[in-house]
Amino acid sequence: DPKIIQKPKYLVAVTGSEKILICEQYLGHNAMYWYRQSAKKPLEFMFSYSYQKLMDNQTASSRFQPQSSKKNHLDLQITALKPDDSATYFCASSQDTGGQWDTQYFGPGTRLLVL
Amino acid sequence: QQNVQQSPESLIVPEGARTSLNCTFSDSASQYFWWYRQHSGKAPKALMSIFSNGEKEEGRFTIHLNKASLHFSLHIRDSQPSDSALYLCAVFAGNKLTFGIGTRVLVRP
């Protein structure tokens, strides 16, 4: 059974619209993250949460808003979508937010295409 | 701002050969060093990590870390076609992981 669920798998949106990417983890982890991966760019850290509190935000734009309704949920709301937002968005989780043993486990990703 | 660079960009190796991948980083305060593997269309998956200078071996995989040189590497012995993937190095510092752009490895049977 998948331990980290991301929905939807694929998403096509029009410029200017708003979408929510869903992430749930069933690993019992306390920390969750969002990353973005687009062509010719490294996997890019966006946010980290620990016990439902924002720990780090490396996203310059306020158009990206994480939402944590439960400890094992971390959704990502994106408003005013732009074609440059097209990427695969990965959710990840780890037991805690530091330490050499804190392996980050990644979900399968949501591939977003903005037209 | 952490800068993580990987080389080479891509690599083709024959089955059974040794694969060597390199990663350099810029922040000397970096604490932990990871290699992830990402098969096409799949999620990145952690392979192994190291935090102190030297070498660590797990099965066919070996990591070397030299903090003074701001460099670590991954070596795969007896490379298999199933090892064909994008290999990402990552450095943990300031409570976050910073990834390199990756090295694409193709192992030819």
**Cα-based radius of gyration of chain B, to the nearest Å:** 13 Å
Per DSSP, what share of the residues of chain A sits in E-state strands of 2 or more residues? over 45%
Order of helices and strands of chain A: EEEEEEEEEEE
Largest sheet of chain B: 6 strands, mixed
Order of helices and strands of chain B: EEEEEEEEEEE
Biggest interface and its residues per chain?
A-B, 22 and 21 residues
Percent helix of chain B, as a range, is: under 10%
Alpha-beta content class of chain B: mainly beta
Rg result of chain A: 13 Å
The count of helical stretches of chain A stands at 0
Distance between the termini of chain B: 41 Å
First-residue to last-residue Cα separation of chain A: 33 Å
Secondary-structure map:
The complex is a heterodimer of chains A (115) and B (109).
Chain A lengths: L3 E4 L2 E4 L5 E7 L5 E7 L6 E7 L2 E5 L6 E4 L7 E4 L8 E8 L10 E2 L3 E5 L1
Parallel strand pairs in A: 2-11
Antiparallel strand pairs in A: 1-3, 3-8, 4-5, 4-9, 5-6, 7-8, 9-10, 9-11
Chain B lengths: L4 E3 L2 E5 L4 E6 L7 E7 L6 E6 L3 E5 L2 E6 L4 E6 L8 E9 L2 E4 L3 E6 L1
Parallel strand pairs in B: 2-11
Antiparallel strand pairs in B: 1-3, 3-8, 4-5, 4-9, 6-7, 7-8, 9-10, 9-11
